[in-house]
Hints:
This protein is mainly alpha-helical. Helix content is about 75%, strand content about 0%. The longest helix is centred in the last third of the chain and has 32 residues, at about 140-170. The protein is flat, with a radius of gyration of 18 Å. The termini are close together.
Amino acid sequence: MDKKQFFLFALYVGAQSFLLQLVDQLIGKSLVPGGHSGFVFIAFQGWALYFLLGSTLKGAVTAFCGYIMGVLFSILMVGGSGVLAGLDILAVPVVALIVVPVMMYFEYAPWCIANVATFFVGAGAFFGVLNYVEGIRIAEASFIVLLYCAFGLASGYMTIWFRKRYECCKR
């Protein structure tokens, strides 16, 4: 595809970004009480993971399962740090020292939950939402992370779908 032809593809990706931003502004504030700056960053992470994991349905399943695992391990860390709250500043680091090595062994799990890097992306998104949206509950944060991950994976799929169709027609 030459630079002139690439313009339409780039515009399509821009339109997808526009739609993600618009959807976030339309639904984001209704997902949780209080103010926040939006959750579209999670969709962009999922979109990138779609590409990084091969731009396939299998990669999308791996990414989504990784987000689920990241959320689950994050919930374990939140609960564990509550149990070890007496350790004060060391509570979270001690919990991480316990949970993360267990998490690492998932490299030996079935394919859909073996990509530990995706756990870290999902956990980062979860902690971002949980720590920076005032008054949010764990269930709400989990739902938001998985919903926006799905938006991002769908965007990645649509990007590749459009590009394949567009390149096919330009030959």
